[in-house]
TrEMBL record:
ATP binds at K51. One of its GO terms (biological process) is regulation of signal transduction. GO terms for molecular function: ATP binding; G protein-coupled receptor binding; G protein-coupled receptor kinase activity. This is Kinase-like protein. Keywords: ATP-binding, Kinase, Nucleotide-binding, Serine/threonine-protein kinase, Transferase. It comes from the Eukaryota. Residues 22-289 form the Protein kinase domain. It holds the Pfam family Pkinase.
Length: 337
C-alpha cells in the first residue's frame, strides 16, 4: 500500500544502502559526468557529498567504463588527503557515489577570487599532496588530471584530491599511452612514443603549484599544438610578481628550487620520482620542507595557513539555482524495479 497517511516508510539502515538513507540538501557542483549535492544520512545526521550520474546520459557520452573504473579505484583507496568513497549504489536511472564532503571549495574557486596564494599556502598544499601521491603510486594508481579544479579544501583548510574519472592503474612494464588529462598540466613524457606511468602526476603538481603562486599556468599557447611544443621545450620563467594581480612576490630560493625540480622534463631526474615509486625521500629531504614533520602532517596535526570562510558558500551558488529552476527530472528516491 502507498504512503496514504503521509508517514515515511521505515528505513533499514542494516540493509542495502539506497538514496532513501539520505536527506537531499543543496546542489554544489556539476560536471561532464554528473552532479554533486550535499546529503545528510538520516540516522547519524552525518553530512556527505553525493555524486550522481544519469545512466542514459552516461551511455550516450560513452563514459560507462570511466565511471565504473573510478568507483573501482576509489574502493581501493583510503587516505587523509583524498576525497574518500563511503558508499556506492544505483537505482534504475542513476549511479551514485557518496563521498567525503569538502566545504572549503576547490583551489580554482579561491584562485579565481584572489589571483594567487602565498608561498606558505602552496608549501602546505604541496606537502599534503605529496603524501597522497606517494600513497597512490605505491598502489600503482596514477591520477592523470591533477589541477586546481580537482583539489578540494575541507572546512579546516586541508587539501584533498578528487575526481578519479581518468585515473588509471599502471604496470612498470605496461606503460600508458593515451593523451589523458588537461593539456596545460600534462607532462612532456605524455607526448612521447615511449609512454608514461606515475611520474606525470609530479609534473602536474608542479604546474598546479606554479599557477597557485603566480596566478597563471607555467606554459601557454594560442593553439594546442603551440602549447604542446612549449610544454616540451620552452624555458620556464619565475617572475618577481603575480601575473594576475601584478603585485610583487617575495618567493624563497627553496620554493623556486622545488618548483623547478617538479617541472623537470626528464622524469628520471624529477623530484618525487628519483627515490622510486611511492618513496617520498627526495621530497622530504628538500630544504623547502625542512620544518615539516610528515608524520604529524598526515595526522592533520598542523594548522593550515588558510581556513575557508565558513560563513560563505565556497562554491558557485548558481548550481543550486539551476537545479531548482531548470531540472526537468528532480532527484528523488525511487525503488528499483
Amino acid at each position: 500500500m502507498g504512503n496514504l497517511l503521509g508517514k515515511e516508510e521505515p528505513i533499514d539502515f542494516n540493509g542495502e544502502v539506497d538514496l532513501h538513507w539520505f536527506n537531499l540538501l543543496r546542489c554544489v557542483g556539476k560536471g561532464a559526468f554528473g552532479k554533486v549535492r550535499i546529503v545528510e544520512r538520516r540516522d547519524t545526521k552525518k553530512i556527505f557529498a553525493l555524486k550522481y550520474i544519469n545512466k542514459i546520459q552516461c551511455i550516450k557520452m560513452k563514459a560507462v567504463h570511466n565511471i565504473l573504473r573510478e568507483r573501482a579505484l576509489l574502493e581501493e583507496l583510503q587516505h587523509p588527503f583524498l576525497v574518500n568513497l563511503r558508499y556506492a549504489f544505483q537505482d534504475d536511472e542513476n549511479m551514485f557515489m557518496v563521498i567525503d564532503l569538502m566545504m572549503g571549495g576547490d583551489l580554482r574557486f579561491h584562485l579565481d577570487r584572489t589571483g594567487g596564494f602565498t608561498e606558505a599556502m602552496i608549501r602546505y598544499y604541496a606537502a599534503e599532496l605529496a603524501t597522497v601521491l606517494s600513497y597512490m603510486h605505491k598502489r600503482r594508481i596514477v591520477h592523470r588530471d591533477l589541477k586546481p579544479d580537482n583539489l578540494l579544501l575541507d572546512d579546516r583548510g586541508h587539501c584533498h584530491i578528487t575526481d578519479f574519472n581518468i585515473a588509471s592503474r599502471f604496470e612498470e612494464n605496461k606503460v600508458l599511452k593515451s593523451h589523458s588529462g588537461t593539456l596545460a598540466y600534462m607532462a612532456p613524457e605524455v607526448f612521447e612514443s615511449n609512454g608514461y606511468t606515475w611520474t606525470v602526476d609530479w609534473w602536474s603538481l608542479g604546474a598546479t603549484l606554479y599557477e597557485c603562486l603566480y596566478g597563471r599556468r607555467p606554459f601557454h599557447g594560442s593553439t594546442n599544438e603551440e602549447l604542446t611544443v612549449n610544454i616540451r621545450s620552452k624555458h620556464l620563467d619565475f617572475p618577481t610578481y603575480n601575473l594576475v594581480t601584478k603585485q610583487p612576490l617575495q618567493v624563497s630560493k627553496d620554493c623556486i628550487s622545488f618548483l623547478q625540480a617538479l617541472l623537470e622534463r626528464d622524469p628520471k631526474k624529477r623530484i618525487g620520482c628519483t627515490s622510486g615509486r611511492g618513496n617520498l625521500d627526495d621530497v622530504m629531504a628538500h630544504p623547502w620542507f625542512a620544518a615539516v614533520d610528515f608524520e604529524r602532517l598526515t595526522r592533520k596535526e598542523y594548522q593550515p595557513p588558510f581556513v575557508p570562510d565558513a560563513n560563505h558558500a565556497n562554491f558557485d551558488a548558481m548550481y543550486d539555482l539551476e537545479e531548482l529552476l531548470l531540472e526537468e527530472n528532480p532527484l528523488t528516491h525511487r525503488p528499483r524495479k
